[in-house]
Amino acid sequence: MNNAKKLEILGDSARYDRCNYINSSVESFLRGKIPGVYNASTSNGCKVPLLKVLMTNKCSNDCRYCINHNKHRFNRVEFSPEELASLFIDYYQNRYVEGLFLSSGIPNDAENSMENMVEVISKLRLDYGYKGYIHLKILPGSSYDLIKRAVSLADRVSINIEAATPEGLSELSSTKKYDTDILRRINWIKRLTKRDKTLAPSGQTTQFIVGATDETDQQILDRVNWLYKKMDIKRSYFSTFEPMKDTPLEFHEEPSSKRSPRLYQADYLLNSYGFNLDELVFDENDNLKLDADPKYYSALSHKEIFPVEINEAPYEELLRVPGIGKISAARIIRNRKLGNCFKKLEDLKNIGVITSRAEPFIKLDNKYQSTLEF
User: Fold this and answer.
1) Could you tell me the pLDDT band of residue 30, with boundaries at 50, 70 and 90?
2) Mean pLDDT of all residues belonging to the chain
3) Could you tell me whether strands 235-240 and 156-158 are parallel, antiparallel, or unpaired per DSSP bridges?
4) For residue 124, what is the DSSP state?
5) What CATH number is given for 302-368 in this structure?
6) Angle formed by the axes of helices 81-93 and 110-122, to 10°?
7) What torsion, rounded to 10 degrees, do the Cα atoms 318, 321, 322, 327 define?
8) Model-level pTM?
9) What is the pLDDT of residues 156-203, one digit of tens each?
10) Is the pLDDT of residue 368 over 80?
11) Which of 44, 46, 264, 319 shows its CA 20 to 30 Å from the CA of 273?
């Protein structure tokens, strides 16, 4: 099989690994145009084309949600390290891509598969002199020495945690061990990158499968919060479970399309806005409410701090107001330092505040803008 056909198969198989900022839509793949090219969105909205590909779809794991699980009979292919390195450089030199996202199935053992991936990026760095962006997946069960080599070569690394609890992972796979194969490796990456800031300078991320088990949003966010505080994880991604034909979970119920976006919003409050987990509001089933964003429900449940006086409130309080983000909160503080007083909603709208959301939660010059029944 030629490399173009391999790339068509293995590029398509890679679409379920998330590397986007919030927009995790598989439609970001440039379908029908250039196989394997994926437009990732950065935090500032820029599009970065990546070659996003698996080394192989051969796999000995039995992940019940995955099309590549070991009992599925379909076309299995693989790249050699030299084939994939050469293909990437051709894409890069022709300006199809600006970076690489590399993952892989595990045909026999994690050590051999991880070694092949590390060889790819070693060839790119040392033989081809490539200095651009590389995101490398760390396979569960990889050795310490290979992980050390990986973080010395890649800009960002990630290992998919998949579930919030050991019990959740055991529902998804019998061939992966939560504590040893995944959490231990996450901790190794943390120790290596903390000791030497030049290793994987963009840090490590992880990914959860949402809706394939009975795990609640509260369990997921509790694990997310722990990963940020204890493991120095830079970003968590949420992959909405999709029932796939010819997988053991083919007939499993699909979760609401709103669930992962709500988890992203809650995750952002924890990781970027300085919220504590106990500030988030869950329903009677310990899941986030889907009809409004978590920040709105958090504000409703903490009526003791609202309404906030815009001309006096500290930055941390401003961030808790629905409709006020980090940029607009900083602009409010900067304007106040310049002696400017906010007197009308229009003044706030002009600096980026979504006043339709913020209005019930704020005061301007000690005047209520509207009333809100808590």
Assistant:
1) very low
2) 91
3) unpaired
4) I
5) 1.10.150.320
6) 40
7) 0
8) 0.91
9) 999 999 999 999 999 999 999 999 999 999 999 999 999 999 999 999
10) no
11) 46
